[in-house]
Design brief:
By secondary structure, the chain is α+β, with helices and mostly antiparallel strands. It has eight helices and six strands; from the N terminus they run E-H-E-E-H-E-H-H-E-H-H-H-H-E. Helix content is about 45%, strand content about 20%. A hairpin with a 5-residue loop joins strand 2 and strand 3.
Length: about 180
């Protein structure tokens, strides 16, 4: 969680209760409410919830919101923790290794974290490198599972890496975050 993100007061309590009730889930995220620099709600980020849906989605995108993760430390260390060589996609790489070991990952259906979007975020500042590392994770862990649609998406994302960074980031925001009126 970044210093400017806001956790709901019950987040950890709710995630702990979920983890106790679902011990097979080793890494747990939640949905996000997107806020601006003035703490105004501007949208939402919806993630797949059940472990199979998360696993399927991971071929296409990082389906676990890093700032909202609740995880068992022994699972994180058993797969080697964060890989510094995967800077900007270290979380996607870590979740992918956890999935490869057969562990389950899920997201709660509730939005329990307010995630702030601003131009200074690492994703905005280093868009092209973030995209390259994301593609590296997909290629390394999921390419053998790609459907035809996944292959097309992967190729299109490679083409995106040749566009100007501000355009890539704007497109990312457009397709990733639902505007406030579109909440479902």
């Amino acid at each position: 969680m970044d210093a400017d993100d806001i956790s709901e007061t019950t987040r950890l309590q709710e995630q702990l209760a979920f983890a106790v009730a679902n011990p097979q889930v080793k890494v747990l995220g939640c949905q996000l409410t997107i806020i601006d620099k003035n703490n105004r709600v501007i949208g939402y980020r919806k993630y797949p919830a059940d472990p199979e849906a998360v696993r399927t989605a991971m071929r296409r995108f990082n389906a676990i919101p890093h700032p909202a993760v609740f995880a068992q430390k022994d699972i994180l260390t058993s797969v080697g923790g964060y890989d510094p060589a995967m800077f900007l996609a270290e979380d996607y790489d870590l979740w992918s290794r956890i999935l490869q070991k057969g562990y389950q990952i899920a997201n709660m259906r509730q939005a329990l974290l307010k995630y702030r979007i601003h131009a200074g975020a690492s994703k905005a500042a280093k868009t092209k490198e973030c995209l390259r590392k994301t593609l590296e994770v997909k290629d390394k862990y999921f390419r053998h599972e790609f459907t035809f649609g996944d292959h097309i998406r992967f190729r299109l994302e490679k083409i995106l890496s040749y566009l100007p960074a501000p355009l890539i980031y704007s497109l990312f925001l457009l397709v990733t975050y639902r505007r406030r009126s579109q909440r479902s």
